[in-house]
Design goal:
Length: 261
């Protein structure tokens, strides 16, 4: 378990966190406004966690599959922008901070009325997904139907999805606005795609900080949870998001109290 050096007291109502005598190892994903080459929402949030707890961090960019394997074994301590499921909840604690809807990112010349059912029925169309990325039950059912027909391309990282769409190797993929808006803009692809909410009844996904149960005791995890909540409740998370999106978009993107990972 983590060594017993006590970190700085967290601000305003958050319990003090115990810091180790080494930097905590944190997995990041190169993924739009969330994280890109050392900058982004997740880096800003991690910096704030460091300021409040006194803990040091060492970040590493990993494919999602490897990040979760190493989180389970304790080779890394934390994963940012993590999505919980039953399996992962067995080896990690999850602290929500963001929520967004998955949108289908499609080529702009796709029929305006194209539905998810029509996409499934058109056996010439292929879809892309990041290997190890969990989208939620409804989306995973749909992806599985494509996979059974050999029409789902699993890729190692999000950037490959945009390359595959640009060169028409795939006809679309799922992403959230904090992922695709920056990527489309910097790649000059904004006019070449359109986005559709294919499953409006599905709940938004909840992005979390995941802590390895190998490396954190339950009482330690609760101190981290309290610190994340304090960053949300005192308006700091909103201010971080406002650096990247409008105030209205930032407010919609914050995971509300009681959001389930």
């Amino acid at each position: 378990m983590l060594a017993a050096l006590v970190g700085l007291a967290a601000e305003a109502g958050a319990a003090p966190v115990t810091c180790p005598d080494r930097p905590l190892k944190v997995a990041m994903y190169q993924d739009g406004m969330l994280y890109s080459h050392g900058k982004g929402i997740d880096q800003d949030l991690l910096d704030e966690l460091g300021r409040r707890t006194g803990c040091r961090f060492s970040t590493i960019v990993l494919p999602r599959v490897r990040a979760y394997v190493w989180l389970r074994t304790g080779e890394i301590d934390m994963v940012m922008s993590s999505l919980a499921n039953d399996e992962r909840s067995g080896y990690a604690w999850f602290f929500p901070y963001l929520q967004q809807k998955w949108m289908a990112v499609l080529a702009a010349d796709a029929p305006a009325t194209l539905t998810s059912a029509q996409f499934l029925a058109e056996d010439t169309l292929r879809f892309g997904a990041v290997r190890g990325l969990y989208h939620g039950e409804r989306y995973e059912e749909w992806n599985s139907a494509l996979a059974r027909g050999g029409r789902l391309d699993l890729l190692a990282d999000p950037s490959s999805l945009y390359d595959m769409l640009k060169y028409r190797r795939i006809a679309g993929f799922f992403a959230v606005p904090l992922q695709y808006e920056r990527e489309l803009r910097v790649r000059g692809m904004s006019a070449a795609v359109r986005t559709v909410d294919w499953f409006p009844a599905a709940p938004p996904i909840v992005g979390c900080i995941a802590l390895s149960k190998k490396n954190f005791l339950p009482e330690e995890s609760e101190r981290w949870r309290a610190t994340v909540i304090s960053i949300r409740d005192d308006g700091t998370l909103l201010r971080i998001l406002q650096r990247y999106v409008t105030t209205a978009e930032a407010k919609r993107a914050i995971a509300h109290p009681g959001a389930r990972p």
